[in-house]
């Protein structure tokens, strides 16, 4: 693999439309494969006004960093919400609910940012607003889904005893 240079302004990679309901509307370009990266993920995300890309969440095994390229909005970090503008860097290390994060475009113009993350698998994600969790193995969040050997989302309150149905 060789080092690469890629223009973020004239990116030749097809974008993915990521939509769910009326509050999730993002245009995502996964830069990781074309850059040849294995252990570091990178996506360019553009949020429509009034929208976000993912639920409020945190990772147990992956750090994330966000660089605001254009526009303004806000970020939820733990229990607080902060305004964000072009040029700002946001860190969301792996951890607990204090590291939960969500970028929201609460402006009238598109908001574009880079999402850079470690690509560790397995990972466990938790979603404090809903009480949901997710477990991924085989490929990290944002990684190749064809390589994923296990993916499960559930509710924390549905936990069972370790020995249930084991005889």
Automatic annotation (TrEMBL):
Keywords: Metal-binding. It comes from the Bacteria. Residues 44-116 form the Cupin type-2 domain. Signal peptide: none annotated. Pfam families: Cupin_2. SUPFAM superfamilies: RmlC-like cupins. This is Cupin domain-containing protein. It comes from Halomonas litopenaei.
């Amino acid at each position: 693999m060789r080092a690469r240079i890629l223009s973020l302004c004239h990116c030749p990679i097809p974008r993915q439309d990521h939509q769910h309901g009326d509050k999730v509307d993002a245009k995502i370009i996964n830069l990781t494969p074309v850059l040849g990266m294995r252990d570091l993920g990178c996506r360019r995300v553009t949020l429509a006004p009034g929208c976000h890309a993912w639920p409020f969440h945190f990772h147990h095994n992956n750090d994330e960093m966000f660089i605001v390229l254009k526009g303004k909005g806000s970020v939820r970090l733990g229990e607080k919400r902060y305004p964000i503008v072009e040029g700002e860097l946001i860190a969301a290390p792996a951890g607990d609910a204090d590291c939960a994060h969500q970028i929201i475009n609460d402006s009238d113009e598109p908001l574009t940012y880079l999402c850079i993350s470690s690509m560790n698998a397995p990972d466990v994600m938790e979603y404090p607003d809903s009480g949901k969790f997710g477990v991924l193995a085989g490929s990290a969040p944002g990684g190749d889904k064809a390589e994923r050997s296990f993916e499960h989302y559930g509710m924390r309150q549905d936990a069972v005893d370790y020995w249930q149905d084991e005889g």
